[in-house]
């Protein structure tokens, strides 16, 4: 039977001991009902995993002793950054979860002219935004645990297009998925550049897409407009499809 797997940041691992805090304490003690002597697997996000034997619970934490450790490589050689136009309701939860499973390294929530979600958050004086970012980070951790990743994607703060473009990303390929692009396909771009691509950033608009003016802004900063074909995908589908294609063409789906 496989052992249960938990994420613990390096700051909570030292001198042969592991300290587990937060919601995992409840999960270990009340849901799984693991007691002293039980073995679990811990990963710290750096590629290292640990075999940990649990000790007794102390207040709001569970401590364990490291019995073994090893390096494990499940990360793709392709570094992907998803810049996702903020969708309505809780669609971002699913995007974050599935993108993590596929292998994304960073997710940047993007506020655009058609981002309905962002206009509501402005009225919340920032508190709700912080809560959402924390929620998405926790979803990343859970998805990384489930998919046996050894790294947890970074969730960046919400930015506007102007804020995002003010800090250029150093990547091999910059893609803008735009439903109004009729000439250049993602397939064509990857066939021309795929073998030399080690890092990619992908821009996905919200419901309703990006405006022509917004698309032009990205294009002026070196982003290649591409199409997936004649069918228009929902915002919560488009980014995941592109990430999967990128892993197949440039990452480790085609090993």
**Number of domain units:** 2
CATH level 4 superfamily of the largest domain = SPOUT methyltransferase, trefoil knot domain
Provide the CATH topology of the largest domain.
Alpha/beta knot
Please tally the β strands and state the result.
13
Sheet with the most strands, sense and barrel status:
7 strands, parallel
Give the helices and strands as they follow along the chain: EEEHEEEEHEHHEEHEHEHEH
Low-confidence stretches: none
Could you tell me the mean pLDDT? 91
How would you sum up the global shape? elongated
The CATH class of the largest domain turns out to be Alpha Beta
Polypeptide structure, described:
It is a single chain. The protein has helices spanning 23-31, 91-102, 116-122, 127-146, 161-165, 186-193, 212-220, 235-250, and strands at 5-7, 13-14, 17-20, 39-43, 48-58, 61-71, 79-85, 106-111, 154-155, 159-160, 173-177, 199-204, 224-226. The protein has 255 residues and is of the alpha/beta class. It has 2 domains: 5-71, Hypothetical PUA domain-like, domain 1 (Ribosomal Protein L25, Chain P, Beta Barrel), CATH 2.40.240; 79-250, SPOUT methyltransferase, trefoil knot domain (Alpha/beta knot). The strands form 2 sheets. Strands 7, 8, 9, 10, 11, 12 and 13 form a 7-stranded parallel beta sheet that branches. The chain starts with a strand and ends in a 5-residue tail after the last helix. The mean pLDDT is 91.
């Amino acid at each position: 039977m496989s052992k249960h797997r938990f994420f613990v940041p390096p700051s909570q691992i030292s001198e042969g001991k592991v300290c587990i805090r937060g919601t995992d304490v409840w999960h270990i003690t009340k849901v799984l009902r693991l007691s002293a002597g039980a073995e679990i697997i811990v990963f710290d996000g750096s590629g290292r995993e640990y075999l940990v034997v649990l000790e007794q619970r102390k207040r709001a934490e569970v401590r364990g002793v490291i019995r073994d450790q090893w390096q494990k490589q499940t990360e793709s050689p392709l570094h992907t950054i998803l810049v996702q136009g903020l969708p309505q309701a809780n669609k971002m939860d699913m995007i974050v979860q599935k993108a993590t499973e596929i292998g994304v390294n960073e997710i940047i929530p993007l506020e655009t002219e058609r981002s309905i979600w962002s206009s509501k958050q402005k009225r919340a004086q920032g508190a709700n935004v912080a809560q959402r970012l924390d929620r998405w980070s926790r979803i990343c951790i859970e998805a990384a645990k489930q998919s046996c990743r050894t790294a947890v994607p970074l969730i960046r703060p919400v930015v506007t297009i102007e804020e995002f473009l003010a800090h250029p990303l150093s990547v091999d390929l910059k893609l803008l998925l735009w439903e109004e692009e009729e000439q250049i396909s993602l397939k064509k771009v990857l066939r021309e550049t795929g073998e030399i691509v080690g890092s990619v950033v992908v821009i996905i608009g919200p419901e309703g897409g990006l405006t022509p003016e917004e698309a032009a802004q990205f294009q002026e900063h070196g982003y290649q407009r591409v199409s997936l074909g004649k069918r228009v995908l929902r915002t919560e589908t488009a980014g995941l499809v592109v990430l999967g294609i990128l892993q197949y063409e440039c990452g480790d789906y085609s090993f």
